[in-house]
Specification:
The protein contains 19 helices and 12 strands. It is of the alpha/beta class. The strands form 3 sheets. Strands 1-11-12-8-7-2-3-6 form an 8-stranded mixed sheet, sandwiched between helices. The protein has a two-stranded antiparallel ribbon with strand order 4-5. The protein is globular and about 70 Å long. The structure holds S-adenosylmethionine. S-adenosylmethionine binds next to strand 3. It holds the Pfam family N6_N4_Mtase.
């Protein structure tokens, strides 16, 4: 990006182009170790204990977290925090390697999965699961909830009925760790049982290959038990997965840290790329009983970082960030004149950018509150682009971090980031310039 900004005019505003070039120069963005290329995505988790329970496309690899924890210098027993925990990758690695951990996510399904993964189970729980599964085989009944109607069209009727039967059985169980584990197994099979797959910013048609829903559920539970038997959290460590916004991190940290210090904060936030996590996970949220239909999802969405165009618009923000928002705003009329069409979606992007960076600034403030001087935060993040204008999220988070009590340790590029083919065709420089990076922030004295 440094070379590009030096040699080619990307932004109409010369103040913006110069400012970004100065950030790029100041932070001296370097290259990450070769293997990070593979570790910034979830595929390396595909067969790893715990991580393999639920395929979380937007997740990073456990191996990356092990590396970052080691780099952070956190001491065993300290808390490793992930304020955007998703499927709990950071938290699982933490408890398996001797750290306490806290994960937050506004998606209640994510918080639940994380909490389930970092919990401790014993022989009694496995025995209870065995009994529950045998009772499930003879269980008949269970009626769909009203909100299930909003998602039943995504399933073949027999699979849908089976899912409702299993969920009704789980709903009737007394609260227990065994029941929690089985519910996590249930949530983890929903997408495979549907005629959809996650793709881009939502769900795409894809016929289910599951033949026997109940057997598939039992296989998932067996796989989870096998993982827990093989690999267990280290003695004496505790983990929490809580449903809350990262903007409440400090309060949550204080309430569960039990005198322990934050060793490091590691996360991958939503990117400023218009992606709506709640749309993507709606089947699990509704059938899993985490949200009361699309209205319930809309309520949850309001707590999310404003990385999607339906987010509440924000008009004012940091003046430098505003330069980017304005740059995109001013490029819209030319695009609309070229295509002859109003682009309602892109019109919302400038306010989304303002909202996104205001939210992320608050998250960085919260991170600084949790850490002692010298404590590190690692952020794994993609850049994005609109109308050929690069939104260099890594540089901008580093810049905001500096205002909230951090010094930038380093920024390393892990791999190229992707954008739509349409944008690539029109702005070929995006192909090699857009990047996915890791930003290291060090808490000031
Ligand atoms: C890139 S994903 C994290 C994936 C995670 N690193 C993993 O390996 O599974 C970002 C997560 O941020 C969550 N999120 C969005 N807004 C949030 C907020 N305000 N507070 C906490 N989590 C939020 C999303 O629900 C999503 O799970």
């Amino acid at each position: 990006m440094h070379e590009l900004l030096k040699t080619q005019r990307i932004y109409d505003s010369s103040a913006l182009q110069e400012w970004l070039l100065s950030l790029e120069t100041k932070y001296a963005v370097g290259a990450a170790p070769e293997k990070y290329h593979r570790l910034v995505n979830f595929s390396a988790n595909a067969a790893a204990p715990y991580h393999q329970w639920f395929k979380y496309r937007e997740g990073f690899a456990g191996e990356l977290i092990a590396e970052l924890i080691a780099l952070s210098g956190a001491q065993k027993g300290e808390l490793i925090i992930d304020p955007f925990c998703g499927s709990g990758t950071t938290n699982v690695v933490a408890v398996l390697s001797g750290y306490n951990t806290l994960g937050l996510d506004v998606n209640p399904m994510s918080a639940f999965l994380t909490n389930t993964k970092v919990d401790r189970y014993d022989a009694q729980d496995f025995e209870e699961i065995r009994r529950f599964l045998s009772a499930l085989r003879n269980f008949r009944g269970g009626a769909p909830r009203k909100s299930d109607r909003e998602v039943c069209r995504y399933f073949q009727p027999d699979r849908f009925d089976e899912l409702v039967r299993i969920r009704s059985f789980l709903d009737a169980l007394p609260e227990s760790r065994a029941g929690q584990l089985l519910r996590a197994a249930f949530v983890s099979i929903i997408l495979d049982c549907s005629d959809r797959r996650r793709d881009g910013n939502g769900l795409k048609v894809s016929a289910s290959r599951v033949e026997d829903t109940a057997a598939f559920f039992e296989e998932k539970a067996a796989l989870m038990i096998e993982d827990i038997r093989r690999v267990r959290p280290c003695d004496g460590v505790r983990g929490f997965g809580l449903c809350d916004t990262a903007c409440h991190l400090y309060q949550r940290y204080e309430s569960c840290r039990d005198g322990r210090r934050a060793g490091a904060i590691i996360f991958s936030p939503p990117y400023a790329n218009s992606f709506d996590y709640f749309e993507s996970y709606k089947l699990e949220l509704i059938l899993g009983g985490f949200a009361d239909g699309m209205t319930g999802i809309a309520d949850l969405r309001r707590g999310a970082v404003r990385s999607f165009v339906g987010a509440q618009a924000q008009k004012a923000c940091d003046p430098c960030i505003d330069l980017i928002a304005k740059e995109i705003e001013e490029a819209i009329p030319a695009k609309e004149a070229r295509t002859g069409k109003k682009d309602g979606r892109t019109r919302k992007v400038p306010d989304m950018i303002r909202g996104y960076f205001s939210d992320m600034r608050e998250v960085l403030r919260q991170c600084a509150l949790c850490l002692n001087p010298g404590g590190k935060t690692y952020i794994v993040v993609d850049q994005s682009a609109y109308l050929g204008k690069i939104v260099p999220t890594d540089l901008l988070l580093a810049y905001l971090g500096e205002q909230e009590g951090f010094t930038v340790g380093r920024i390393v590029k892990c791999r190229n980031a992707r954008t739509s083919t349409q944008q690539l065709n029109q702005y070929p420089y995006l192909k090699t310039t857009l990047r996915e990076s890791i930003v290291e922030l060090v808490r000031n004295e």
